[in-house]
Amino acid sequence: MSELENKANDDGPGGGVHHGTNNGPEDDKGLGLGVVFFMGAFLVCFLSGWLLFPKLLYSKKEQPFNFDHNLHVEETGDCESCHYFREDGTFSGIPGLEACMECHTDEPMGETDDEAVFVDEYVAQGKEVPWLIYARQPDCVFFSHAAHTVAGGMDCKSCHGHIGESSSSRPYEENRITGYSRDIWGKNIWGIKKNSWDRMKMDDCADCHLERTGHKGYCFQCHK
Amino acid sequence: MIENKKVHKFGMVIDVDKCTGCGACMVSCMSENNVPFKEDESNKKDSITWMRVYKLTNGKSFPETEIAYLPRPCQHCGGIGDHGHSPCVSVCPATATDYGYDTGIVSQIYTRCFGCRYCMGACPYHARYFNWWDPKWPEGMENYLSPNVSPRMRGVVEKCSFCYHRYQLAREKAMIEHREIEEMEYQTACTTACPAGAIVFGDLNNPAHKVHQIVKPDPHPDPMNHKVVGKSRNPNVFRLLERLGTNPKVYYMSEREWVRKAGDNYLKGEWENVKTHHGASSSHG
Amino acid sequence: MKIDRRSFLGLGLGAAAGIALSPVGVKLTDDSSIWTQNWPWTPVPEDGKITYDRSVCNLCPGACGISVRKINGRPVKIEGLDDHPINHGGACLHGISGLQYLYDPARIKTPLKKTGNKFEKISWDEAISLVAQKLGEIRESGAPESLGLITGADNGSMARLFDRFMGAFGSPNTYTMPSLESNLAQTAAALHSADRRLGFDLDHSDFILSFGAGIIEGWGSPVACIQANASRRERKAKLVQIDYRLSNTANAADKIIAVNPGTEADLALGLCAVLLAKNKISTNTLSGDVSKLPFAAMLEKAYTPDKVAAITGVNAADIDALAMAFIKAKAPVAVPGKGRGDAGSLREFAAVQALNALAGRLNKAGGAFVMCPADYLSFPENVVDATAEKGAGKAKLAGSVNELADKLETDGGLSALFIYNANPCYALNAPEKIKAAMDNVGFKVSFSSFMDETALKSDVILPASIFLERLEDVVSGAGLAKTVVGLCRPMVNPVFDTKHPGDALILLARAMGAGMAQSFAWESYDACLEQVTGKIWDTLSGDGYVVINDKPPVGTPRTDFTFLVSAPKAAASNGEGEYTLVPVDKMRLAGGAMASSPFAVKTVPDMVLSGKYSVVEINPATAGVLKDGDIAVLKTAMGRAKVKIGFNEGILPGVIGMPRGLGHAFNNPYVAGKGANVNDLIGPVIEPGSGLDAAFGIKASLSKA
């Protein structure tokens, strides 16, 4: 309160009426400084919004060990060998240990450290690998792989991109607020997408549905 | 592709005379759809029961007293003229509930709902329930929750979905086998649970389905009341508050006249008119 | 240069503009709205592979086949098993909610020992050695007969194992809780021969005369009965219900005969008398039945239409017409057992079965079957030492569990008691008396899965795994006209530190050493079951069930009417009051050893349970000053309870109907502390000659609270 009063007293002699004219030159300086402050603050905030914010928003987690998709696709020939449909039409998603053990044994097949981790920590102990799923949608979403790939004739890439060609697992980024994988919103912090697989929000599903089926779909078509 | 598919109109017919009021449908529904429960569920206004069995009486004195049990799932209204403007769908400001034109099922997104409860006010059948509290399961009991239906949270409205997830599962199987789903592949949890076989579920648009054969729905609007479409041509079959033109896809069946009469509120003398001109229901007002 | 407020303004505006043009705003808005939709505490059930496993439900004697849906091996739903010979895909609400019992808040998680008034966790080793030591002392004292056993069912391998234990230990003091099954067995023993079971072929009968049996309300094998009733319309089969209230079964019936409560036996005998008087009974049907002449004489003398009419309240012409309709039907059957049939007098059961016998309906399709027990178990010979032989040869303390309670309360007589699959401190009439009787037993061992009223009274608890966690043979019974053995299989590993009660017995016997250990030489219960089921094991474990018999038994059994001729008196309702209080069995409320699940309680209408009050049915004509919805005090000679008045046109004037299965008092807030236990208000009336509690109700008064 007293500071404000002091300020008011400082301005006092000038009086309200003369305010504009008497302090003219100082005003210009003040404005100039204001602009500097404005620009400075703008730049700091704008850049942190662009560069720092995403780093703060997402926590990075490494996969339990590196997985070489490229190598596995070369060995098996396709995605479906590991990511298959069950007999009831549901999709198996990421294979469990049992599926891995159809090819792998309790001896490492390769010589990488990752293979050793797989064998020692998971195969030997009969423990499932706690993979972090980049494409995981929230619990309220129902997604039918059969409807998209079998009935709709889409390929895996349309949504999953070129993951099958990667030879190392990128870190999993989790949104600290929502707990969603970063892939849902997309790598681009503005949510701008270049490829069909860049973003997997509800609008992206709806756009494609509208284009291909003539309708965005009804709630239960994609929600449970 | 969806647009090439035949349009389904899933519905059920419940034989009120067969229903024993045993409650198996209610529990099967709750356990299928992750419906929560509270310590005290005796206040039925806040007791979430997607399927609720009502008890009706004919109001007569003993020994003429008769009772009937009327199971009430969501009626999956087609709205006036059966155009998909169900009472609840029309009022939802969040587009959290909509009408599936491919199935006739009133669907919803729980997470999209912000809890205004307009739909509850609009529903003439009290089929919608609000989550006043966060669901709470006794320690360990979350272990029985099904992944096919997402558990709801405080502040959202929920209701019967005709076990849509069972439709999805049946479709997935049919899709990888490159065929259409069959009648018995998609049945709701209440239907399969009913020990008396009182509920018949299927596609009202498919003449091969039992529900169609029992209901014999009239595809044309009722000449006496154009709001009403799909009226049953079976004299024992009726719908609840049929004259409103909500066009429910849940039909009821009874050989007992007083039960059929209990399906609506009639002015004095009105019922005599309705029952003798079956299929011709006059409009309210 | 001076930093003034405009600089700050510039700073603020710059920051705001910078943030506004950065993605922060749009992203945070989206994320925060998502956050509000997905609370971190809302559970996310794990997805995975769907499988279905077959098993059998043993929550009630229905023995229905169930299909358990699992996600990655985790059970998520119980449904009826489609191709099962008993329930054909149907299920009841209790079975469907079975998974809730796995995680029931009242489950006993580890073995417990009572110290003072508190239970203390102990290990299985400690628990077994503690019980073995106590039992050892009893045997050493030379009075093995002072070990008692109260059990719920008396068939299947578990019942046989307990019998075997008692036999090897040396005690005859095994008592079975009254149930439809035990009542029918006792009826068969009184009228036909010992070790027979009764079945009622409702599926093929065209005229079901039910003496108050809640055929669609949990009587017998509930799903099978509901299905039999549902098919009546197509089969053109009639149902006539003799009842004093408009039960759901009465409502479904083609005809209701209103009868005074507790006079069903008189009506049945009255019907027999009419058939005899009109020569409608061919003497051939009774050939070989030595007591038929005295029985006929008794009927002629004591059950004239007028006398019966006066007792039952049914007029003589109606009795006559009913008898004629019954005898003229192609395949009539008379069905005893009011409500679920758990309570009742032998006189009543026997009178109804006598009607079946006189009408020539024994072992006929659509009639009443007198069946041999399911003989599929072959145990190796029990090892019985001298002590055991001496103890087992002694007379039983009492004839029935009710008499036992009386005996214990007054003179004691047991130094230890096993309780398995039973909750007498809740389910029997006058539970306080039962609790007092339990107090007179030094050492009580419970095999309960739940901390129910009886488990709370125990000294040591050896907690049992529930049916979803264990292997067991389940035999059909409870009035079903076929014999099916089903296999209950573990659907999940025990959730808590519990054991199969069979394994607990084996460990106990092993700890007792010597002969007991030899009697229970199996490695585990599972090994025992495989051995004792012998021939049928392969089919049983392969198909999940074995149909032992589904045809009418051959030949007409002998009927001995001596028990009825001895003219047992009808049980009178005791006490004082202007009303007769009767318990009412409801399908949605479990009444026996098992309490209801949270789901089942949720389905209970507010016309049955309102807040914390049981709602009692009363005819408005005899309600006096009481109004619908009033809170009233219901008083009987046994106790009092605050209840809510529910007007019901469909109950006889002067009768108060109170739901059974409420008023549990244990630690499960979803199930207990709701309403009052009707058994608290009714006192047992022990029937001479059978030892059964024949109380059908009690005199009561109502006053506004």
Automatic annotation (TrEMBL), chain A:
TM spans, by residue? 31-53
- Asked if the keyword Isomerase belongs to this entry, the reply reads no
Q: Which domain of life is it from?
A: Bacteria
Q: Which residues form the Class III cytochrome C domain?
A: 60-112
Molecular function in Gene Ontology: electron transfer activity; heme binding; metal ion binding
Q: Which residues form the Cytochrome c7-like domain?
A: 142-224
Any matching Pfam family: Cytochrome_C7
Gene3D superfamilies given in the database record: Cytochrome C3
> Where are the stretches annotated Disordered?
1-25
Spans of biased composition, class Basic and acidic residues? 1-10
Record's keyword terms, sorted? Electron transport, Heme, Iron, Membrane, Metal-binding, Transmembrane, Transmembrane helix, Transport
Q: Which PANTHER family match?
A: CYTOCHROME C7-LIKE DOMAIN-CONTAINING PROTEIN, LIPOPROTEIN CYTOCHROME C
Family annotation (NCBIfam families): mnquin_red_QrcA
- Name used for this protein in its record: Cytochrome c3 family protein
State the organism named in the record: Desulfobacter latus
From TrEMBL, chain B:
Ordered alphabetically, the record's keywords are: 4Fe-4S, Iron, Iron-sulfur, Metal-binding
Q: What one GO molecular function would you report for this record?
A: metal ion binding
Specify the domain of life of the species encoding this protein. Bacteria
State the SUPFAM superfamilies in the record: 4Fe-4S ferredoxins
| PANTHER family with a match to the protein in the record | PROTEIN NRFC, PROTEIN NRFC HOMOLOG
Residues of the signal sequence?
Answer: none
> What organism does the UniProt record list as the source?
Desulfobacter latus
Span of domain 4Fe-4S ferredoxin-type: 10-40, 104-133
Q: Which InterPro entries does this entry report, sorted A to Z?
A: 4Fe4S_Fe-S-bd, 4Fe4S_Fe_S_CS, ET_IronSulfur_Cluster-Binding, Menaquinone_reductase_QrcC
Which named protein is this?
Answer: 4Fe-4S dicluster domain-containing protein
Q: Which Gene3D superfamilies match?
A: 3.30.70.20
UniProtKB/TrEMBL annotation, chain C:
Question: InterPro entries per the record?
Answer: Asp_de-COase-like_dom_sf, Molybdopterin-Qrc_component, MoPterin_dinucl-bd_dom, Mopterin_OxRdtase, Mopterin_OxRdtase_4Fe-4S_dom, Prok_Mopterin_Oxidored
List the CDD domains.
MopB_CT
List, alphabetically, the Gene3D superfamilies matched.
2.40.40.20, 3.40.50.740, ADC-like domains, Dimethylsulfoxide Reductase, domain 2, Formate dehydrogenase/DMSO reductase
The question of whether 4Fe-4S is a record keyword is answered with yes
- Highest taxon above the source species: Bacteria
Q: Which residues form the 4Fe-4S Mo/W bis-MGD-type domain?
A: 50-106
One MF term in the entry's GO annotations: molybdopterin cofactor binding
Q: What is this protein called?
A: Molybdopterin-dependent oxidoreductase
Q: Which Pfam families match?
A: Molybdop_Fe4S4 (PF04879), Molybdopterin (PF00384), Molydop_binding (PF01568)
Q: Does the keyword Oxidoreductase apply?
A: yes
UniProt keyword list: 4Fe-4S, Iron, Iron-sulfur, Metal-binding, Molybdenum, Oxidoreductase, Signal
Question: What family classification does the UniProt entry report for this protein?
Answer: Belongs to the prokaryotic molybdopterin-containing oxidoreductase family.
